[in-house]
ABC transporter ATP-binding protein
Amino acid sequence: MKKIEKLVIKGMTRRFGDATALHDFNLEIAGGQFITLLGPSGCGKSTALNCLAGLLELTEGEILLNGAPVQHLPAEKRGFGMVFQNYALFPHLTTQRNISYGLEIRRVPRAEREQRVRKALNMVHLQDFGKRYPAQMSGGQQQRLAIARTIVLEPSLLLLDEPLSNLDANLRNEMRIEIKRLHTELGLTTVYVTHDQSEAMSLSDKVVVMRQGRIEQIGTPQEIYNRPQSLFVARFMGYLNQFPGTVIGRDGEYWLIQTASGEQFTASSTVAESINWQTGQRVLACIRPDETLADPLPAENHVQGHVRLVEYVGRAYEILVQLADERGTQLLVHSAHAPEIGTPLTFGVQPERLLLFPDDEMTTGHTSAEQDLVDVAAMRVER
Ligand SMILES: Nc1ncnc2c1ncn2[C@@H]1O[C@H](COP(=O)(O)OP(=O)(O)OP(=O)(O)O)[C@@H](O)[C@H]1O
């Protein structure tokens, strides 16, 4: 199979009638990389993957495999392997036959076939399950079989569409490690679709965050996590707390903001347009709950409120803090200690972890699918 040196996707667009499911998708993938497409339901992740796989025709754009266009090739001629969310196993074939089927179609000689099936079974730790039928195996085993069936064909590109979504939390973690191991050991190039940010963070060399059929941000997990370039990406990365303020000045790389109740904070911004911000710019200041500091309290950037709820979330207490502002803002804070309900609480946040985004309709207007995400955040705060 042709190894990937470079896969370049240029202006990939897919429309269904009047609706654009994918718009001007551009991405470069180097051989050996693990790429994740991350975003909420309906943002176009599967459409992008299916276009890459050759299961959907592109309305516009190009896919260049080592410089040669492949967008007009049928799926089977691209040499890519796809693992589907529902596994798509053959129920009437044993594990061995499920794996060997693709090799039979390709007329691989019997001896080589048997040897490759054995190797694939070992690779996914299913060597003792060769004679079982899919219905006789657990969800995790079926998932491993789906992967084995694909990698036995030595695909130049492995495409995985939410492969862990049908598994319970423990198995998901186990299989996540398994997928990364196979990717590394076999030197695969992988494109993985998920709506789970922790999966994207732990697996990827590069994360592509998508929203409404468009790419919102591309970066390493560290870049996406620490330097989200829009409020949408920030929320997706767990910056659930937000409160409004106004820019009142600049201090080197930091911004000085003031809330409606007169408190001042030093904060950062990862948004490119922030270089044009003037005094008076309305902003939303965002903090991840696990980046708030109640004990020890930092020297500056203090927020004061009252404890409304306390919940142990393992390693820390998650505290719902009610601020005294007229908007009734509630924030989630993490602390090593559990305070009494109703008591005052002061916490702080380091200026580089308090991120500012423009507070306008463009950044706060959400589609219904995105609203689900926002609702999840809101639900946590409403408890
Ligand atoms: N065959 C189709 N006909 C019409 N619209 C479609 C079709 N397939 C997808 N869409 C639309 O395109 C958009 C993107 O869908 P897609 O399945 O790519 O999203 P997704 O991010 O993979 O979502 P999920 O995580 O829910 O699978 C959605 O609005 C969807 O309704």
